[in-house]
What does this fold into?
Amino acid sequence: MVYEFDSEIKMLEGKMKWKVVYFPYSVRETFNTNGKVSVQITVDGHEFEHTLLPSKNGHYFVYNEFIRRDVHKELGDKLHVILKKCEENRTIVLPDYISKNLAEQHILDTFLNQPDYMKREQINYIEIAKKEETKSNRILALINKLKDK
It folds into this structure.
């Protein structure tokens, strides 16, 4: 089933200083869970794979840098969202340049053995960098972190 709604970009309450968009329906009733839900979203016409996360104020998705760059809206602005649950397992796409760097350092297997959410987070952190120098620095930091494991 597809859910279409307008929602405001808000700050998540608590320690995490994330901009989020709340899902205006009960995830318990809609998806039969109180936990995380993998979803496909279209935000103001731009498509993304994402996750609904639980909080005391209801489920939300993070208004991350990838969405912000495409949508160009900020805290307090309204978004038009079309959301549906992902029924198939999502795959992680490891860009070749990251894979090559990890393989050269003999830590590709260490990276691949991490939980999916960590791999996704690490890849996204590298990918959102605007400058190639920043990407290189972030890859080097990841390499050092994985070598310490």
